[in-house]
Design brief:
alpha/beta; 8 strands
Length: 189
Amino acid sequence: MNERIRVPEVRLVGPNGEQVGIVSIHDALKLAQEADLDLVEVAATARPPVCKLMDYGKFKYESAMKAREARKNQAHTIIKEIKLRPKIDPHDYETKKGHVVRFLKAGDKVKVTIMFRGREQSRPELGFRLLQRLAEDVTELGFVESQPKQDGRNMIMVIGPHKKKAEAKAEKAAAKAQRGGEEPSAPEE
């Protein structure tokens, strides 16, 4: 019974990314202790498995910071909703259009919903014309992302902004900084 016990081997990568070679797991652990680093398995499915000498705590901290920075730079898409009726007063229409303009300038998408009640449901072309008119009025700020479509008692259209949310934020910050540089006028008594 002179069987040899096979010691598992790993392909070892040094702390600076240099290839150390194929060594036994015991030697790899010894090297990690001498260098005061951790032995981390980076590719378990490879034959032999690949391990790297690194400071694992520092690695986790740096990857968390990168993820946090990526989330901070990510723009969240927000869909604002405006509800209208087919028989809307001209002044009310202008007010609602002003809201849509404000949302598009801020870089948000706008979902415009026309609600039909009673006999209005038999005249969906009124709602369609109203949505087309609104889309034409805000052409310079946004584009129709999804065409008007009937959904039960409602007709829905989505308008997307031409500029991205990040661009809108930067523009707003620049305008605020410019206003902040001007001297505020003293209140009159």
